[in-house]
Write a structure and sequence with these properties.
With about 120 residues, this protein is mainly α. It is built from eight helices and no strands. The model has no long low-confidence stretch (mean pLDDT about 85).
């Protein structure tokens, strides 16, 4: 396997400058400490609030109420048809962002028209 190369419109200096104030190690450590606290049952309330604040969504029900195929619904959400199929069969769960978007769409069907306009 050859060397992996990424293309960017930014110069190397601009890319480096974007990350100069970020401490990746601290972020990773904080995540690991939070996971450990959750496993031990000592996680702070904020950890649970963040996880519990996600709305429950029924992907198939939402899609069917819109009278959309899996392919059309996937296009609106910016995911693959297989992803929608996996959500509907319970093989995987929508990401928090996708879950929030599906919830909003289920509450206001006009959002689909707005999203379709950008596709």
């Amino acid at each position: 396997m050859g060397e992996v190369r990424f293309k960017s419109s930014l110069s190397a200096d601009e890319i480096e400058n974007n990350f100069k104030d970020i401490d990746f190690f601290s972020g990773i450590m904080a995540g690991l400490e939070e996971a450990l606290a959750y496993e031990k049952g000592t996680a702070r309330a904020a950890t649970f609030a963040r996880k519990k604040s996600l709305p429950d969504v029924n992907v198939a029900q939402t899609r069917k109420s819109l009278k959309m195929s899996q392919k059309a619904f996937a296009s609106v959400l910016g995911v693959s048809t297989r992803t929608v199929e996996a959500w509907e069969t319970g093989k995987s769960n929508p990401t928090p962002t996708a879950r929030n978007l599906i919830f909003l769409i289920s509450q206001d069907h006009t959002l689909v028209t707005k999203l379709q306009a950008r596709v």
